[in-house]
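Q: My labmate handed me this sequence with no annotations at all. I'd like to see what the chain might look like in three dimensions before we decide whether it's worth expressing. Could you predict it?
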Amino acid sequence: MNTELFIAKRLISDKDSRHHLSMRIVRIAVFGIALGLSVMIIAVAIVTGFKKQISDKVIGFGSHIQIINYDSNNSYETKPIDKTAVPLRVVKSIDGIQHIQAFATKAGIIKTENQIQGVALKGIDSNFDWTFFKKSLVEGDIFRVTDNVTTSKVLISKYLSSLLQLKTGDEFAMYFIQDPPRMRRFKISGVYETSMMDFDKVYILTDIKHIQKLNGWNPNQISGYEIYVDDYRKIDQVDEQVKKVVGNSFTSDGSRLKVITIKEKYPQIFDWINLQDLNTWIILILMLLVAGFNMVSGLLIIILERTKMIGILKALGSENISIRRIFLYESGFLISRGLLWGNVIGIILCLIQMHFHLIKLDASSYFISTVPINLNLLNMVILNIGTLAITILMLVIPSFVVSRISPVKTIRFD
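A: Here is what I predict for the chain of 414 residues:
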């Protein structure tokens, strides 16, 4: 039988002790732990949700990894590569790759009766994965691309739709500055919105065959391939494998191929996302310190109020380490109670934000319109175990006060 645990349970369930001054102070400490944990859960849920939504949107436009011409730069006027230059069968066999699709881009100008706007066409083929844009669709529908027939339908952003005063079903003319200049007419099939203004202001999705004809490319020439991986954390590992396969390949004109990750293509966005981790660590450390010091003060008061009991236990032969365990067990029960309420409060507030989107954001600054929430079971388990362990460790030192209490003095004083 664990005597220390038995005594700790009796102390917790003692009805008379609930009226003591120490228990009122302990309740405040427990409330501090509950409040601290709930804040930590909300902070982690927001930061991980924010990182996930932003990275998903950037990846939705540009995939995890791209295979392009080595001479290509950040311009939308790209140098083509031959489809045959990339050993797709070998690339697809790489562990972690989920999907591969061809793409091509070309800059142009949309002219309506009242507006002129520079945009970039992104050409897609029949193998294009529509998952991201289906989620972002706010009006109309996606269009179907076939290998034989060229469609004039396009998908346009809500920003461009409002700016150019165009809606689903409308047609517009697009001009391309080249020699000789070209013009194409397109019909809006649907409208998407991602709140990523850097992309919404620019991209229009269309049939890749339009870009191939405008550039004078043959059907085997494209701007490159987009590669999606099944786990974002594998992106660097898959990138290395793809580079081994195609890094030394050449196109028909002697140009080399280049493999680039989305983090390398948009470093400013991903560096900004990673900065959010620093804010999270600051919040976690501050909340843990507040919860720990609250429990330290509560434990000291409990020990001082139980001086007589400590003296009697020592007189009966209990060792200091055994008595310290009693108060650490008692503290563990109180901390667990605070953790329970902290989980309840934190999860409820997160669920309210997830379903009702009460807290709004400026999409032009944060790329999303509402505060994102990502409730992850593993994160919550780590937060609970970490809070319990760190708080208990902080209580070990004040528990040594027990060793300074003399049984003779305490019993005589009573």
